[in-house]
């Protein structure tokens, strides 16, 4: 993957590839969108370091060439993530009885839907943010929110926050890996491992049964 990303780092196509991957992985969680964002950020960080080191004396202020912008990568991944969430939300909303039956047959989907409904009703959607890091958690939450006919103004702000958190974390670990280990398979692997560990923790949190607060009624 790193070799392919390196071929794209000098072209705007890197942003299109990232956007399509992030947009579609809400329906195809097997797409390595997180690894792709990390690989691009790693190549950007390592390329920026190498380009800066190669700049002649007296021209250090000039920006490095043929290196993707980390800010543009962050905005691209965030925007694509939110758009994908909204598409899945609309699919869930319009899914009808067939989707309702599919959710009812899945304990995981029905539990996530119930927990999401309670969280949004209380004015909090931290579950949306946590689910963004869990494998297939984004799909479960976005489809579940639509199927439950949650209002978009309840879901969208948390979707934006989840997208920012996920994209920021992915770009961040890729940047650190590129600065620390360079644009190598080792650097990408360490960064992807950090994302995978976070996803495993998020999946564990989502699987935990929701704790009910003790009644305060006398």
Structure description:
- The protein has 218 residues and is mostly helical.
- It has one domain.
- Helices cover 74% and strands 0% of the residues.
- The chain has ten helices and no strands.
- It has helices spanning 2-8, 13-24, 33-54, 70-93, 96-105, 107-121, 126-133, 137-147, 152-181, 185-207.
Outline of this structure?
The protein has 218 residues and is mainly alpha-helical. The protein has one domain.
Present the secondary structure layout.
Elements: H1 2-8, H2 13-24, H3 33-54, H4 70-93, H5 96-105, H6 107-121, H7 126-133, H8 137-147, H9 152-181, H10 185-207
Helix pairs in contact: 2-3, 2-4, 3-9, 3-10, 4-8, 4-9, 6-8, 7-8, 7-9, 7-10, 9-10
Helix-strand pattern: HHHHHHHHHH
Strand content: under 5%
Overall helicity: over 70%
What is the 3D form?
elongated
| Poorly predicted ranges | 51-65, 211-218
Largest sheet: none
How many separate structural domains?
A: 1
Structure annotation, total helices: 10
Q: How far from one another are the termini?
A: 61 Å
Radius of gyration: 20 Å
Total beta strand runs: 0
Would you tell me the overall average pLDDT?
75
- What structural class is derived from the secondary structure elements? mainly alpha
Give me some keywords for this one.
218 residues, mainly alpha, 10 helices, 74% helix, disordered C terminus
């Amino acid at each position: 993957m790193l070799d392919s990303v390196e071929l794209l780092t000098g072209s705007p196509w890197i942003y299109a590839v990232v956007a399509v991957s992030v947009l579609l992985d809400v329906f195809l969680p097997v797409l390595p969108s997180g690894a792709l964002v990390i690989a691009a950020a790693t190549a950007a960080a390592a390329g920026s370091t190498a380009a800066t080191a190669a700049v002649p004396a007296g021209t250090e202020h000039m920006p490095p060439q043929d290196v993707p912008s980390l800010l543009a990568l962050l905005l691209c991944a965030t925007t694509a993530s939110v758009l994908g969430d909204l598409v899945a939300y609309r699919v869930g909303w319009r899914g009808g009885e067939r989707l309702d039956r599919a959710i009812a047959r899945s304990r995981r989907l029905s539990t996530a839907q119930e927990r999401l409904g309670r969280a949004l009703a209380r004015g909090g959607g931290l579950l949306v943010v946590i689910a963004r890091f869990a494998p297939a958690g984004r799909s479960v939450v976005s489809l579940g929110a639509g199927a439950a006919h949650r209002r978009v103004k309840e879901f969208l702000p948390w979707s934006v926050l989840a997208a920012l958190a996920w994209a920021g974390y992915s770009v961040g670990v890729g940047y650190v890996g590129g600065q620390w280990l360079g644009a190598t398979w080792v650097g990408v692997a360490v960064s992807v491992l950090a994302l995978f560990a976070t996803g495993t923790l998020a999946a564990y949190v989502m699987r935990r049964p929701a704790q009910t607060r003790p009644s305060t009624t006398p």
